[in-house]
Amino acid sequence: MDIFAKFENRLGPIGDYAEKSPGYFAFPKLEGEIGNRMKFMGKEKIVWSLNNYLGLANHPEVRKADADAAAKYGLASPMGARMMSGNSDIHQQLEKNLASFVGKEDAMLFNFGYQGMVSAIDSLCGRHDVVVYDAESHACIIDGLRLIPSHRYVYKHNDVADCDKQLARATELVKKTGGGILVITEGVFGMSGNQGKIREIVTLREKYEFRLFVDDAHGFGTMGKRGAGIGDEQDCIDDIDVYFSTFAKSMASIGGFLSADKKILTYLRYNMRSQIYAKSLPMAFVAGNLKRLELLMSMPELREKLWHNVRRLQDGFRERGFDLGTTNTPVTPVFMKGGLYDAVQLTYDMRENYNIFCSVIVYPVIPKGQIELRIIPTAAHTDQDIDETLAAFAAVREKLDKKLYPQEMPNVMA
Questions:
Q1: What pLDDT band is residue 414 in, cutting at 50, 70 and 90?
Q2: Average model confidence (pLDDT) for the chain?
Q3: Which range, of 40-44, 105-109, 361-365, averages the lowest pLDDT?
Q4: What are 380-387's contacts with CB under 8 Å, separation 24+?
Q5: Which pLDDT tens digit goes with each residue over 257-314?
Q6: Using CA atoms, how far apart are residues 307 and 295, in angstroms rounded to an integer?
Q7: What angle do CA 18, 21, 23 make, to 5 degrees?
Q8: Residues 102, 302, 114, 111: what is their CA dihedral angle, to the nearest 10 degrees?
């Protein structure tokens, strides 16, 4: 059998809709300057689908830093992996600044956050070890776990009692294998908006020996008094052994980093295959990220504006009776009841008739019969954006409740 033959009849649970969704529901093209309002298919929309939390994407100082760095270094420099020929003073300066900000001894840059997480898990865990992880962990964590030979135990989402149970199982197993235990959770869960129960998990060290690895992609820059992430928010920085985040969200850039004790980072630098055998993060991005981190640390008003918008938006939804789950972060999921056709019709209605662009999530990502519209507030949004969005959601919900949406795919090219 031709290995590619299976692609002709089955494209996967999401790919099965490929013929009806490209360019609109999947792979849409947003045009114009990154911000609260952009063009989609030639018309201006209020955009709630960008993780540009602090509005740094088009901050004038950021744009200047990016332009200056590109002019100075180009996009080729440095040529080679960090270990061989791709190191520089500014790479090391950014690592030093990041480590200091998140309260760790050292930090290590990655070309991409996703790649960094997958490779970090692969490097940290061996066949005698056990990983205990949250059931709603991001795909990069799941993919990292798929690669390793370690035993794995999953606990119910944010269920500390179940985490306790899985740690008990893991402890019995490592007594036989001689390995160690790594607990992995997110600081802020990107779909639900829940904070990971870091402080409660840490208390389990009274019973078990384990290390804690936190993916804080959505928490870095948004959570805590200083914006230093979930450890800052929950006052448990020292209890997190390995702290990870990406530059693709609050920093509005590319790349990522991991921060921990020097001995851990020294090991990773000499053993992390995705960094040893991959080209270093280009200087232009490193210089731009230095400026972004500087603004993130020195301009608390950006985070304050973000949280003003978060509270105004989430309070407005709740006052109108919308279900936001249990989010306690900027991530704002809006849950409604309905099937696939309800989801695509109301999303189409929202975009075409109310000029609201947000991401829709349906089965198999969430259970059948549920619709999730995920809203990402940013510091760039305005009160007017919020008011128009709340009104639009109220209108489409009324249509949904009255079953006014056709049970068919909308003609997105009409």
A1: low
A2: 94
A3: 361-365
A4: 380/35, 380/36, 380/52, 380/55, 380/58, 381/36, 381/46, 381/48, 381/309, 381/313, 382/36, 383/312, 385/36, 385/37, 385/46, 386/309, 386/312, 386/313, 386/316, 387/316
A5: 999 999 999 999 999 998 999 999 999 999 999 999 999 999 999 999 999 999 999 9
A6: 17
A7: 110
A8: -80
Whether 248 contacts 220, CB under 8 Å? no
Nearest to 89, CA basis, from 286, 300, 224: 286
Residue with tokens 């590109």: 70
CA-nearest of 137, 127, 153, 247 to 191 is 137
Specify the pLDDT at position 18.
62
109 vs 259: CA distance, rounded Å: 9
Report the side by side order of strands in the sheet with 332-337.
332-337, 370-375, 359-361
Tokens describing residue 342: 């309800």
Q: What is the pLDDT of residues 122-172, one digit of tens each?
A: 999 999 999 999 999 999 999 999 999 999 999 999 999 999 999 999 999
C-alpha pair distances (Å), 23 with each of 10, 374, 386 = 20, 19, 26
What domains sit in the chain, N to C, each tagged with a CATH number?
5-53+300-401 (3.90.1150.10), 77-298 (3.40.640.10)
What's the mean pLDDT in 8-16?
65
- Taking residue 157's Cβ as centre, other Cβ atoms within 10 Å add up to 17
Quote the percentage of the chain above a pLDDT of 90: 87
Looking at this protein, which amino acid is placed at residue 303? R
Global pTM value: 0.94
- Do 86 and 277 meet the contact criterion of CB atoms below 8 Å apart? no
**Nearest 5°: phi and psi at 122?**
-60, -40
Q: Is 398 helix (H, G, I), strand (E, B) or coil?
A: helix
E-strand spans in 250-362? 256-260, 332-337, 356-357, 359-361
Produce one character per residue of 237-264: b if its CB has 16 or more CB atoms within 10 Å, e if not. Answer: bebbbbbbbbbbbbbbbbbbbbbbeeeb
- Burial 168-197, CB ≥16 within 10 A → b, else e: eebbebbeeeebbbbbbbbbbbbbbbbbbb
